[in-house]
Design brief:
Spore Coat Polysaccharide Biosynthesis Protein SpsA, Chain A; 9-stranded mixed β-sheet; Rossmann fold; 581 residues; alpha/beta; 21% strand; 37% helix
Length: 581
């Protein structure tokens, strides 16, 4: 009699694994599960059954399956996925196979359940698979859709019944898998030297649909058949689109990020640099920005070079082109659209020029266009910035809650003036009262009430801002309180960043200092108007200790003026609670 070990590789399969294990009971002689450190209850479910459970870091489909085979006791392996199970007829057929000693290889038919419907056409059935084999002469090969390779010839036993495959529970599951698998397949194709001409994605998608829906009778599977065929066509389109993208970027060594607006905007763009280097380890990242934002860019460890736009503008047109061309830049990402920079990048023959579709001049100056509109988006500004990396074939991004991990700022406190303002025996709290018109403001009277409510023996309160802003608040906020430290107009931006780093908390409207404080790990309390697109969902500070305060109210009444009664309605008690929580 043939003795069989079932081998299953898993990662977070709690929703599938029990059905699979139940169907194997009494059919195989051993069950081996190789898990890649699941964070759900996969392990606990397996422990309920007679399973040999092992854990190992994920190293790819083929490598994991081959390693799992070596953990088995018996040479005959039944390779089954967690989302598969045996039909009654297949169970009986395997028991019959075990009595046939002359067979060392068995083939079965796989029947797929798509969102509750069994797919019997579309080329998905019968989906023949060789799943029972002798491990000593067989191994899995391939990066994706791994296949069995034999170094010996075996007579194949045809199993009856179906291997039931519960592939997708929701249509979104299929889309997510398409995104993942096309990424793997395209990268593997490029590594093997494969390329694709620009019409290939469209032809492949059309032919795939015609083949599956018409020639393979997908229309007989009704709505589910239509969904399978259209999404499979999309997968073909996406695969070859990514092959084109990856072919373009495989030799990229130098990327330029362009953002020439204010500090807050630049702060929410800086995380791109570290993430690009994480995804493309051998790449240099430069940043084209304003002179004003250079100090904060200099503190970012992931930015290799800073190019000042103002310095470029002082040169003649020919010298601008020559200077940019001399940097050997392979790709530019236009995070903040600027027609002059877009034209300059093209004239400097930067090979990849990434912009958005909603700027007409990008149609003539960029060769990779990302469909994105910031105006009505519900996404955070930093998330919108990340979406531009699709032009570099980077199609997965960190969650908003983890974006602060990519600031990569290193700030050393070296200037003596900073140390003069810090009291190591108190909570050093910076109040940045003004915004230079970049955001709606809480109001000086609210800040006055906040100061009067804070315990001066506990808090070292520092008022920050420009000299012009100091002239606006000194009479009301500094003069009545002799213990207040007025830092307005006293610091360069470089020194001010050090002051923030040395402090414990900062309160401000949606401004650059707020985002700097959040990035440096301070308790950054942001004060916002509940008005699109100024609201926290779009511009909130990103940091482990950052908080955004806004009242729950329709703020349409505040649209037409610089003053916002909604932000002024944020209670002092709520701000104190945010500081002290």
């Amino acid at each position: 009699m043939n003795l069989i070990s079932a081998v299953i590789i898993t990662l977070n399969e709690a929703h599938n694994i029990e059905r699979c294990l139940i169907s194997l009971q009494g059919i195989v002689d051993e069950i081996v599960v190789l898990d890649s450190f699941s964070k759900d209850s996969t392990k606990e479910i397996c422990e309920k059954y007679n399973v040999k459970f092992y854990e190992r870091k994920w190293e790819g489909y083929s490598a994991s399956k081959n390693y799992g085979n070596q953990l088995a006791t018996h040479d005959l392996i039944f390779s089954i996925d967690a989302d598969e199970c045996l039909s009654d007829k297949l169970q009986q057929s395997i028991l019959s196979f075990k009595l046939q000693n002359e067979y060392k290889l068995a083939r079965l038919k796989r029947l797929t359940n798509y969102c509750g419907s069994w797919i019997k056409h579309c080329g998905w059935y019968p989906d023949y698979k060789e799943r029972i084999f002798h491990r000593k002469h067989t191994q899995w090969q391939g990066v994706l859709h791994e296949t069995l390779h034999h170094d010996a010839k075996y007579k194949v036993y045809e199993l009856e019944g179906d291997l039931l495959h519960y592939s997708y529970h929701e249509p979104e599951d299929h889309i997510k898998q398409i995104e993942k698998f096309t990424d793997i397949a395209a990268r593997d194709a490029v590594l093997k030297g494969q390329d694709a001409f620009f019409l290939k994605p469209y032809f492949s998608a059309l032919l795939r649909f015609i083949k599956m829906y018409l020639l393979q009778w997908g229309f007989l599977d009704g709505k589910a058949g239509w969904q399978v065929c259209t999404r499979s066509a999309y997968a073909a389109f996406l695969k070859y689109t990514k092959i084109i993208q990856f072919s373009r970027i495989k030799n990229i060594r130098h990327i330029l990020i362009s953002r020439t607006d204010a500090i807050g905007d630049v702060m929410l763009t800086i995380p791109l640099a570290k993430y690009i280097k994480e995804k493309m380890p051998n790449v240099r990242v430069s940043f084209l920005g304003n002179t004003y934002t250079k100090p904060i860019l200099a503190y970012c460890q992931s930015i290799d070079e800073i190019i000042e736009f103002a310095s470029l503008q002082k040169l003649s047109k020919a010298a601008q082109i020559e200077t940019l061309a001399s940097k050997s830049i392979d790709a530019i990402v236009h995070v903040f659209p600027n027609p002059a920079i877009a034209a300059l990048a093209k004239q400097a023959n930067i090979p990849l020029r990434i912009g958005t579709t909603n700027r007409v001049y990008h149609w003539f100056t960029c060769n990779i266009l990302i469909r994105m509109s910031r105006k009505k988006s519900e996404l955070h500004e930093a998330e919108l910035n990340f979406s531009l990396l699709e032009g570099l074939a980077i199609n997965s991004f960190p969650k908003k809650e983890t974006l602060h991990q990519y600031y990569d700022l290193k700030v050393d406190i070296v200037d003596d003036i900073v140390k003069e303002y810090i009291d190591k025996n108190k909570v050093n709290l910076i109040l940045h009262t003004k915004s230079r018109g970049s955001a709606r403001e809480w109001g000086l009277e609210n800040f006055r009430q906040l100061i009067s409510r804070l315990n001066k023996d506990k808090y070292n309160i520092i008022l920050s801002g420009t000299e012009e802003e100091g002239l606006l608040f000194r009479e009301q906020l500094v003069k009545p309180y002799d213990y207040i430290k007025d830092a307005s107009g006293k610091f360069t931006l470089k020194q001010f960043i050090q002051l923030i780093k040395a402090s414990d908390a900062l309160v401000a409207a949606s401004t650059g200092p707020l985002h700097i404080a959040a990035a440096l790990g301070l308790k950054a309390v942001g004060l916002y108007a509940p008005l699109k697109p100024l609201f926290p969902q779009r511009w909130g500070p990103l940091g482990e200790k950052a908080k955004a305060l806004a009242i729950d109210k329709n703020c349409d009444d505040c649209k037409n003026g610089s003053r916002c009664l909604c932000i002024e309605s944020i209670q002092v008690d709520n701000v104190i609670q945010a500081i002290e929580s």
